[in-house]
Structure prediction request, 150 residues.
Amino acid sequence: MDVATQILRKAIDILFLSHKLRTSLGIALGFVVHGLIKLFTPYLKRLSDIIDITELGWMTCIVFGIIIMQMQTIFFLFQRKSPQNEDIDNILQIIENARKEGLPEWQVRQMYIALYTKMLQNIDFNKETKDQIEKLNKIAPASETGSGPV
Prediction:
């Protein structure tokens, strides 16, 4: 697979898998904009000296709608250069801010463990992987979970 195909595939995954709601709303927005353009075509034709937007097809309107609804994601990816989940990045930033403000290290560690546990609960593992995770949980001593300052 060439680099352009890999980048395109990653972009499509981010749009359609990570942010399904925004993409769906963008498609709906595109249809609404296209409908409004068709509704007001006679008036818009009189105003079109430079660009005739009445010639925009429905696919173009949908693409513009998706881009508008995904602007937050686009800005986020340019700032972070990471296709991770925005919520997870925000939580990690909150934990780091709490550490800088003087939160004890054992509490910071507990927050990270809670985040990782929640992330792992949201992943659908196959049976073999689930069994391995259960074994690891049984092996891990209770003192590792950081029940308080030592």
